[in-house]
Amino acid sequence: MPFQYLRDGKVFQIELDESGLLYPPGPSPRKPSRTERFWLCGPCSVRFTLAFDRGKGIEVRPLRAVSAA
Q1: Residue 44: which residues within 8 A CB-CB, separation 6 or more?
Q2: pLDDT tens digits, the chain, 69 residues: what are they?
Q3: Is 65 helix (H, G, I), strand (E, B) or coil?
Q4: What is the distance between the alpha carbons of residues 52 and 42, in angstroms, rounded to a whole number?
Q5: How many domains does the chain have?
Q6: 22 DSSP 8-state letter
Q7: HSE on the CB side for 20, CA within 13 Å?
Q8: Which helix (DSSP H) or strand (DSSP E) does residue 15 occupy?
Q9: Is residue 16 part of a domain?
């Protein structure tokens, strides 16, 4: 099924390896096991972003908290 979203907001594309961990960025001879897409609506995308936590997976985090880290 094609990925659909409304016109406002932000789409995140996350590449995961076979164990479900974040696929390392950059060139690699291996292809990611799967690609997942997430969408934050317009008002949310101004205040939040997505981050990967090894223990929890993908999380929604405030932009302020990410920029301070």
Answers
A1: 9, 60
A2: 565 656 788 999 888 877 777 766 667 667 777 888 898 989 999 999 998 887 888 899 999 866 665
A3: helix
A4: 21
A5: 1
A6: B
A7: 6
A8: strand 10-16
A9: yes
The answer to whether position 35 is within a domain reads yes
Q: What domain range is 47 assigned to?
A: 10-68
* 3-state SS assignment for residue 47: helix
Q: What's the predicted TM-score (pTM) here? A: 0.66
Pairing of strands 57-62, 48-53: antiparallel
Using only C-alpha atoms, what is the Rg of the chain? 13
**Residue 35: what pLDDT?**
84
d(CA 65, CA 51): 11
